[in-house]
């Protein structure tokens, strides 16, 4: 995410290395590179210029603290201003209605239908809501089918009307259906076009007027950069929407849309799409995004993802097994699944300060655990629960069954043994480690 921009900003800050004080000369050189980096990231020229002027104002004349290098002070100023440029703080979603009506708008191909499903899933799993998805794209037959497929996958009801080509009527009927059947959120997926046109804008304006949504969201493909910002402005001029959703952010190496859009339309980015899976949706936090753009990682989001997968009851069971030396490969598989549920490996690495930058050129496949799982699944239940019984003959069979070789089986067994010993040690003097740490983290966020 934003690799190109991060690299260029990193090079810009190198100019200040070795200077004891920030001067007009070294600030000008650095900010020239910062502005160039923003323009290369497809940020609007005026925004890039205004941004660097504000940073220059704040940087000039500032004495460098004894614990800081000039480059570090400049990074802090840039980070603070980037955070403000992207909205300052996270914006919530309005769920005050009963039902709360959310209208989704955007161009065709922006990921609107898929994100409607992701948002419904987010509200169902994270906010304990009962959402209803509404298929109002009557022009693209595949859109209705797509929404039904998404709804079936998530266990969320989809409302559609066969033979009815009036989206306003469908939306109004869906809200009546929601009220009669206990749905407390209605997400209306509307038609998109390949470009902004009068017919499209009139139709969505009519739907908006008829159902008076509590929240109108504009969905845009972040990879289209400045075009995304221009499209958002056209929609906002007509619809006056409440917030922006940026999709495909995981594939955006530039970041122009994320940086520019708030400044242009004066509406917050509320959610971002970070992958293809239906749980690949995050609330947009400007400060965390600024950290990631500047290569500082995003530890808070990483902890939150870990917490979402943390199961206290399961942790207690594992704790007891470790204490009795009964931790086996079935338990290890459970741990692997929890890590996989947190998201793509490369995305997780990018959240660790320093690691994302170091691993930017390393390809980390999402099936990084594939061969480990294959080896474990080739073991018998007895071998999984008591790895010590695995002799050479068993290793040969396991390697053959998993499509690996004995060296890989040996390596896994050795790593598992080392991990088991480490976990046993952690159970000792300072133990109850994981549970206590995660419980404290949960407490801190309450």
Automatic annotation (TrEMBL):
The record ties this protein, via Pfam families, to: SRP54, SRP54_N, SRP_SPB
Q: Which domain of life is it from?
A: Bacteria
Q: Which Gene3D superfamilies does UniProt cross-reference here?
A: P-loop containing nucleotide triphosphate hydrolases, Signal recognition particle SRP54, nucleotide-binding domain, Signal recognition particle, SRP54 subunit, M-domain
Q: Where does GTP bind?
A: 106-113, 189-193, 247-250
Domain SRP54-type proteins GTP-binding residue range list? 268-281
Q: Which GO terms describe its cellular component?
A: signal recognition particle
User: What role does this protein play?
Assistant: Involved in targeting and insertion of nascent membrane proteins into the cytoplasmic membrane. Binds to the hydrophobic signal sequence of the ribosome-nascent chain (RNC) as it emerges from the ribosomes. The SRP-RNC complex is then targeted to the cytoplasmic membrane where it interacts with the SRP receptor FtsY.
Which family would the database say this protein is a member of? Belongs to the GTP-binding SRP family. SRP54 subfamily.
Fill in the subunit field for this protein: Part of the signal recognition particle protein translocation system, which is composed of SRP and FtsY.
Q: What is this protein called?
A: Signal recognition particle protein
What is the protein's species of origin?
Myroides marinus
Q: What is the lineage of its organism?
A: Bacteria, Pseudomonadati, Bacteroidota, Flavobacteriia, Flavobacteriales
Q: Which gene encodes it?
A: ffh
